[in-house]
Design a protein that fits this description.
- Two copies of one chain form a homodimer.
- The first copy, chain A, is an alpha/beta fold.
- Chain A has helices at 62-68, 72-78, 123-138, 152-163, 184-194, 206-212, 230-234, 236-245, 262-280, and strands at residues 3-11, 14-23, 28-36, 49-55, 81-85, 141-150, 171-174, 219-224, 251-255.
- In chain A, strand 6 (141-150), helix 4 and strand 7 (171-174) form a beta-alpha-beta unit.
- Chain A binds chain B through residues 9-13, 16, 67-68, 70, 72-73, 224, 226, 257-259, 261-264, 266-267, and chain B through 9-13, 16, 67-68, 70, 72-73, 224, 226, 257-259, 261-264, 266-267.
Chain lengths: 283, 283
């Protein structure tokens, strides 16, 4: 596994880096970003860092969260690394679609089973297996992981976390697509990537997965009330009802006046990082 | 003066807005951004807000600082409005150049005196007169102003502040062009906008202006030691020497490892906002 450093920038006394590597899982060249908090003081007593994996939304790359969320400040203070993958496989040889909500930039954190998608579109395996193995080999990470994301990435964080409670300490999401089996974005993506048998969609639908969850990870969800996608695409009320039926405690916070943008994320990212820190840094 | 609201987004319990208006000074349509901190608690005792004017660097619009600096968090906490103009006049009828460092996106915060620039390129007057008059009429601002900026905008902040100590309480700059009369960016811009008589450049050169300053505003400058433009374009040592010769106290802080990017700004913007708050909020 060869990592090529694309850029390295000091930030908050830590370092924000961007890397390129060839992903075996996705069979294409990928970029990801990582923020490493200042290590100097930590090296004596605890050289190994926990990591928060951040999954971005439709049309994003690793750069949106890196540049707009302001997460590095608290990550530096708390001593948490940030690992920020791209949102889909990339490249000229990778299947794409002219719309923003399918194909490149819209991987939906699943393993596709239909052509022309199934060869490259395996973001579920990439984020769950290949990327953590890579960064935990290359950087001073201790294998403690939390997962978070925004919109499509919030869906990804919930799905990956709910299906793999042994791999993550905690889950959080901003404005997640909570019930992709029953919203336009999700139905379009799932029918293309997974085919039209709806029972095969359930493995990627947080509102279905939460019903069968046996282990309960801490979950925090932040949702703006002025989010233009709230009713049509996000549907946190469906997840909330499913969680209550399953007796799974999920903290869903509604914030008056906030929309779907990175300004919303920037406002509450400190809260999310502190939430994850409680579990990531627990002795 | 008609203001057209382009966007309005809640952030840190305040509001980040973008406006379009026709500028008489620049004779073109301009965009600017404003962040208004939460007012609810302040309304009883002090409804009027001081403002920090932020001037951005080459190639930027109002959006770079708005989205990448993370300044709204501290501005909200301190109760300071942020006023963020564009970096030049804009539009098809406005003279331009194919290079990034001249023409649109590169106004250098001066009043041009040469064709084809002199008709529209009057950013000095726009930032000093028209924009404050406009925003102080339209928003709950109290007329207390500080000025700050980055790179070309750091030059602008120093020049506007040094020439108008009655208009600003304090000046700060990240990685400013300190001696534009003697660096490639500045010489190219000044010879184009102002002509080749170098004595006419002095009114826009902080290192010359500081020599003649009779009133001493507080000045804070932050400079990264790994800034790729440090030696060739920025030259803080020239400003420092001129300030020392003039007995003008200027705080220039050098930060090891930091570069010219917005990650550097994001890291130290809290310090700059607290610096300005000491003067903007003084009874």
């Amino acid at each position: 596994m060869t990592l090529e450093l694309v850029s390295s920038t000091k930030a908050f006394d830590g370092v924000q880096q961007r890397y390129r590597h060839f992903s075996e899982t996705l069979d294409c060249t990928m970029h990801f970003a990582i923020f490493l908090p200042p290590m100097a003081e930590r090296m004596d007593r605890e050289p190994q860092l926990p990591a928060l994996y951040w999954l971005s939304g439709l049309t994003c790359t690793d750069e949106n969260f890196s540049q707009k969320a302001g997460a590095q400040r608290m990550a530096a203070e708390l001593g948490i690394a940030l690992v920020i993958p791209d949102t889909s496989p990339r490249g000229e040889q990778v299947a794409d679609d002219e719309n923003y909500d399918l194909g490149q930039g819209a991987g939906f954190y699943l393993n596709a089973t239909r052509d022309p998608w199934q060869h490259h579109y395996r973001m579920y395996d990439y984020v769950l297996e290949e990327l953590p193995a890579l960064v935990e080999q290359q950087f001073p990470l201790n294998g403690r992981r939390a997962i978070a994301g925004h919109s499509m990435g919030g869906h990804g964080a919930l799905v990956l976390g709910l299906r793999n409670p042994d791999r993550f300490s905690s889950i959080s999401a901003f404005s997640p697509i909570c019930n992709p089996s029953d919203c336009p974005w999700g139905e379009k993506a799932f029918s293309s990537y997974l085919g039209t048998k709806r029972e095969e969609w359930e493995a990627y639908d947080a509102s279905r997965l939460i019903e069968g969850a046996t282990e309960h990870l801490p979950i925090l969800i932040s949702q703006g009330d002025d989010d233009e996608f709230l009713q049509r695409e996000l549907k946190p009320q469906v997840l909330q009802a499913a969680a209550e039926a399953a007796d799974y405690p999920v903290k869903i916070e509604h914030h008056a006046g906030y929309d779907h943008s990175y300004y919303f994320i920037a406002t509450f990212i400190e809260q999310h990082l502190r939430f994850h820190a409680d579990f990531l840094l627990k002795p």
